[in-house]
Structure formats: structure tokens, C-alpha cells
Amino acid sequence: MATKEADPRWLAVLAQPDSPLLDLPKELRIEIWKYTFSDSHIIPSSFGRLRHNHCQACIDIANGNSGPLLWRRTFRPLRTSKQIYNEAHEMLMQSFTLHLGTPLGSPMRALIPWLASMNEHIKRLEWRVHMLAHNRMDWLASIAIIGAQFPNLEKLVIHAHMHAPERLDYRLFDSLYFALPIVRLKQRMPNLKLDFDLAYKSPVSTITSTSLGQITAADALKQHEEMIKDLVVDGVFVAPVLAQDLDRAAMERALFRCARVRGQIE
């Protein structure tokens, strides 16, 4: 029986101390590294995916683009020789975007131990989370870990996937739980550029709003996102979030006020 040929993408790169690359001027090699590694997106996984099995939003992301590169494949060029490693390693570490996921019920599982050895180098992070009613505390703890694990982070993008509500106003308290740790993270890392987007785990066409009637799922998500953005910069909300003793009643008052301004409740 014929032996199946190994996929060359998974083959180890043998040391090449006489690589033709080393015959090029260093300035040219640096330009090659910039071209090779600039804006790379990497996932610390041997499977090449970050997705929950029952999340349509994750499936849509996977089908919509080529996705991040595997960790091993991205680092292959660095294994050519020690000289190439020394030249290109720092450039790669400072240029790529790391993709992490938080599987349900296991916050920050993707922060495997060996990642901790390079966390100070990571500047850009995209983080996919699944927010459900039973794992709100996981979310609060996980985003706090982000600030501690990546002290030099410059950009964070959060992709939050959740169940679609029967009514838009049922998601009001989700806005509170989403905004609370973001406010704390922004205080800890004031120069961090933070963005997020929301999506529903299962496809839905319309959602009912008490004040807006039937609206599309896209409009409902936009309303939810805008509510969170309002809360994060609302001084009436921020003050009790950052207070030594968390004042939930004050946070809820700020939430309801923002919801009334946006017409989400009467």
C-alpha cells in the first residue's frame, strides 16, 4: 500500500547555515522580514481554527476569510539558521496579531503556558469570546487577565458572540456586564486602542423592541454595541465601576438612563 506523502507545511525545517538568504545584504534581508511578517495573524493552535461547534457566527468568520496562520507555520522561516532567527524574531514578535479564543466554561484556556514567555512582546490581540448568561463571571475574570498577561498591548479587538434575545430590552444587563471590565481595562491601559463587535450564535432575522417594534438582527446588534460604547464613556457609569466598593445600583441607573436616551426603553 502506498504511503501518503506528508504535507510539506508540517515538515520540520532543517537548519540551513549556508542559506542563500545569508548572502544578501542585511538591509535587504530586513526588508524581506518586514514583507514576510508585517500584519501577520497567528493562532496558537495546531488545528488552525478558533470556533465553538454550535456558533454560527464563528462558522461565518471561518468561511469569510482564510483565517489566521498556524503558529508552527508562521515561525518556520526562523528555523533556517540562528542568524536569521536573531534578525527576524523581534520583528515578527512586534508585528503579528495574536488570535485567542475563550471556549465556553473555560476562560482563557488558549493562554497556554509557553505563551507566557513571549507575552510582553505582543502588541496586537484579537479575542473571540462567547458570552452567555451562565458565564458572565468568566468574562469579567478573563478580560482582567488580558491586562495582566499582555502589559505592552497596543490594540485589542473583541469578537463577542451571544444568544439572540427574544426582546432587545432583555439584553440591557448584558451591556452592563460587557462594559464594566472594559472600563477597568481602559483605566489600567489608557493608551490601549480597543474595539469590539457583537454577533449572535444562531441566525435570526428580526427581534422585538419595546419602543422600536420589530427590528432586524443587524439593527439590534448595532443598538447593543452603541449602548456599550455609551456606557464606557459615561461618567455616571464609570465612577461606580472604578469605586473601591462597587455600586451596582448606580451602575444600573446609568444603564437605564442611556437606554432611555437611545429609545430602547420608555
TrEMBL record:
InterPro entries: AN11006-like
PANTHER family named among the record's database cross-references: F-BOX DOMAIN-CONTAINING PROTEIN
Name of the protein in question: Uncharacterized protein
